[in-house]
Amino acid sequence: MLMTDLISEHEFVEVGNLRDSQGRYEEALAAYDSALRIVPEDADALFDKGETLEKMGRLQEAQKFYDLALSLYNGY
Predict the structure, then answer these.
(1) Residues 43 and 17 sit within 8 Å (Cβ to Cβ)
(2) For each of the chain's 76 residues, which pLDDT tens digit applies?
(3) Which of 15, 25, 48, 71 fits a 20 to 30 Å CA distance from 60?
(4) Domain residues of the chain, as ranges?
(5) To 10 degrees, the CA torsion angle through 56, 61, 65, 67?
């Protein structure tokens, strides 16, 4: 993985967080998806996506992302 890939991934997560805070949830999800295409195992991006999904009322889907993030945080 190139450093430019990691920078891009981080920027997508930042955009996702900003859009989430603005209540622009669909745009936030798109940004997190872009980040996860670069680094699929980014636990923070997975968790953030789960939070956005929860805010949208998509609780079962959110739980899947929380579980995946938790497993990555725990090293599984």
Answers:
(1) no
(2) 777 877 899 999 999 999 999 999 999 999 999 999 999 999 999 999 999 999 999 999 999 999 999 999 998 6
(3) 15
(4) 3-73
(5) 120
Domain 3-73: CATH superfamily, name plus number = Tetratricopeptide repeat domain (1.25.40.10)
Reading the block at residue 35, the tokens are 């980040």
User: Amino acid letter at 25?
Assistant: Y
- To the question of pTM greater than 0.85 for the whole model, the response is yes
Place of tokens 């859009």: 19
**CA-CA distance, 49 to 27, in Å (whole number)?**
11
